[in-house]
Amino acid sequence: MYQVYIRSFADSNGDGTGDINGLRSRLGYLRDLGVDALWVNPWYKSPLHDGGYDVADFRAIEPRYGTLADAEALIVEAHEHDIRVIVDLVPNHTSIEHVWFQEAMAAPPGDPARQRYHILPGKGTDGSEPPTNWVSVFGGSAWTRLDDGEWYLHLFDHTQPDMNWEHPEVREELCSILRFWLDRGADGFRIDVAHGLAKDMDYPDDDHDQKLLVSSDRPDHPFWDRDEIHPIVREWRAVLDSYDDKMMVAEAWVASDRIALYLRPDEYHQSFSFDFLATDWNAEELETSIDRSIKASGVAGRAPTWVLSNHDVVRHATRYGLPEGTDWRTWLLDGPHEILDTELGLRRARAGILLMLGLPGPVYLYQGEELGLPEVYDLPLDVLDDPVWEQSNRKQKGRDGCRVPLPWTRTGPSYGFGSGDAWLPQPELFGAISVEAQTGDPDAILELYRAALAVRRDHFASDDDIEWLDSPAGVIAYQRGSGAQCWVNVSGTDMALPADANVLVASGPLDGVLPVNHAVWLG
Ligand code: NOJ
């Protein structure tokens, strides 16, 4: 699966913003890369206060991205390239510009139009305190006051009011939206904040800090991972099952041992194992995390869904270049940036992709990781667009650094992303690591991805279990049912390879040994 952050993928009309027609023009690239499906980040009509996760109309395309006809054409053309398309559904909240929220604001307190959201009187004699002490994921209070004195809940930005999932109209509407996109040929959905829909309707206070997209591991949390979520998911699954061959994947930041609940046969097909993404480059921890994910999904008879980067986290080529234990979220702003070893990060990213692609279960790649793109950690503060920056009171730099538009060519305005400047500035080094610069270069990470994705189909693509192999300390080694093996050297010393080793793919030159921070697939 390949994640397309549409705003930053390819710009067809030179306005600096990626769009659907830009994506259509690059389908050949994606087919040649060897991906089976695309997950397209939200493309709905939106004021883009949170990169489109603030949806104003779930049945319309944001004009900056194109038209509904463009989206339909994309799906048809992707299918012609043997690539499926899943759409990003955002059921937890809408934009403040959504007609339902507009109606809610225009209605007086107590009006039924307010009940589709969590809109409550405040506390204190004059209601001037928020209904609870809940903190937004992006920082600050999770409540904002309306002019008439009531408060609305937003677990994310104040422009993203949370919907009330106890309301029958909300439930019906979301099923209808699913059908709308399935009728247009979409192959499924990535479900945003899948662990957040249900709220404790007694609205108790909660004394725990929120951390940006960090899993909750507490039972009976007032808004994360509540049991009331699952009947909702079953309604969606019934809609999907009334079509042929559709799927959905949960973005559920939950403790590993809760994942199986989301993977029950009448719920999600896949749920991301964020545990692996959050693990440092440390052999023991990586092995433990892989094992934990396999066991956790195995409870539901499924393989885990792997991912190393997405549009919410520091790119892994940069994470892996930071000393173990660094909090990469705060490092973005606070540094010190000198602790980053870019070359080391890239070397490990090359090895890490073989580690991940060899595992049983689906893998999600985030656009640009195939180019080894680093996090652009030094974006000037005045170009930051992520609401995290303001909502956190400028304490967190946010996620723009992993959303910088892709470089397609060595030179030219925005390195081939479009015909003018891109919506976020690209660093100069992007030219040298553009698609054009890397294509055909056997040492380039892009060619490593192409080779690995091709070999994966024959040797690693099934869901069978893994067998851990005996290996020197600090070396991760496993074998798959096909007999193919993956060896990753996370130790401090090179490891000798057997003389007769049949190398399928290697993350770098071997010369009889598996060097430190390298990986190899043997067949
Ligand atoms: C998770 C999405 O991946 C993230 O980008 C977004 O800000 C939040 N959900 C809120 O929709």
Description:
The chain folds into three domains: 2-92 and 167-445, Glycosidases (TIM Barrel, Alpha-Beta Barrel), CATH 3.20.20.80; 99-153, Oligo-1,6-glucosidase, Domain 2 (Oligo-1,6-glucosidase, domain 2, Alpha-Beta Complex), CATH 3.90.400; 465-522, Immunoglobulin-like (Sandwich), CATH 2.60.40. The protein has 15 helices and 20 strands. It has helices spanning 20-25, 27-33, 68-80, 99-106, 168-183, 229-241, 259-262, 274-277, 283-298, 316-319, 328-334, 342-357, 387-391, 435-438, 445-459, and strands spanning 2-4, 37-40, 44-45, 57-61, 84-89, 119-120, 143-145, 151-153, 188-191, 247-250, 270-271, 306-307, 363-366, 467-468, 475-479, 485-489, 495-496, 503-506, 513-514, 519-522. It has an eight-stranded parallel β-sheet. The protein has a five-stranded antiparallel β-sheet with strand order 14-15-16-20-18. A hairpin with a 5-residue loop joins strand 15 (475-479) and strand 16. The longest helix has 16 residues, at 168-183. The protein is globular, with a radius of gyration of 23 Å. Bound molecules: 1-deoxynojirimycin. 1-deoxynojirimycin binds next to loops.
